[in-house]
Fold:
Amino acid sequence: MASRSPLSYWFRLRRDNDSLCPMCRYPAPGILIMVAFLAAGCGVEETVVARVGGIEVHDERIQLYLEGVTGIQWAEVDSRVASRLFDQFLEQEAAIQALGGRPEGAQDDPVARSILLRDFVKDFCGPPPTASPAEIDAAVEKRMAEVVPDRVYIRQLLLRDAAEAQEARIRFDQGEEFIDLSRELSRVPNAEDGGVIGWVTRGTQPDDVESQIFALEVGQVSEPVEGPAGYHLFQVLEIRDSGQVSEVVAASEARLDLESAGSREHLDRCVDQAVDRAGVVIFKENLWFDYQGRFAEG
Structure:
């Protein structure tokens, strides 16, 4: 997916929903969606689960996409995760149609689709708005007043299975660069940029994650950490102990936070416009899971 900001996104899903999914996001309200709750009698095949811009989407494409993102059999994907990935696929499809189609072979590859989504946002919506000086000053002041717990700045690889994760770690230990491994192997949307997650604060993440990342020195890579989307390897790039931050650090982090939030909101608005233009119809009766996504609201 194009890459919306990865900062803490994986962890937020894990914490809030007890599910791991690098390319899921919450539904945006206020979008007019057409929903077909009964497929029977509507003139569609049982394999058709949606229409985007009048083009039918068949169940096999969604099943392959679920497996490509999560690394597990499509039938084993939790309904909440399946719902969000289904929404994501349809959003991407609307954006890809706005681009005039898709390159051969890229239509269902999760990473390729995220890149196409990034291209759509860039071409059709332009860059995200920048924060005003007043917003930056307020964010810096707030940062400087806080006592911040221990934090680490990390990036990740997401691999399909334990064997692939262990092989990647061995290659790193043998001298290969983390970013090269990311570009070759990782399945996160921002793999080309090294899979940066950003600052992670102690006490906010699952125990199995914190026990790994807060035990690392700068430059070290964790053992594989299992999640529903696959196996993760984390690398620590910077460590900051608890306490109040300096004005320089506060300014840097405030700008990053504002940029991250602005980019995320900009992407959401842009995708919503593509969905509105294309029109999305789902056929809930043809889905094999309990659909709970954004297109169920209408």
Q: What stands out?
A: The chain has two domains: 9-128+264-296, 147-240. The mean pLDDT is 82.
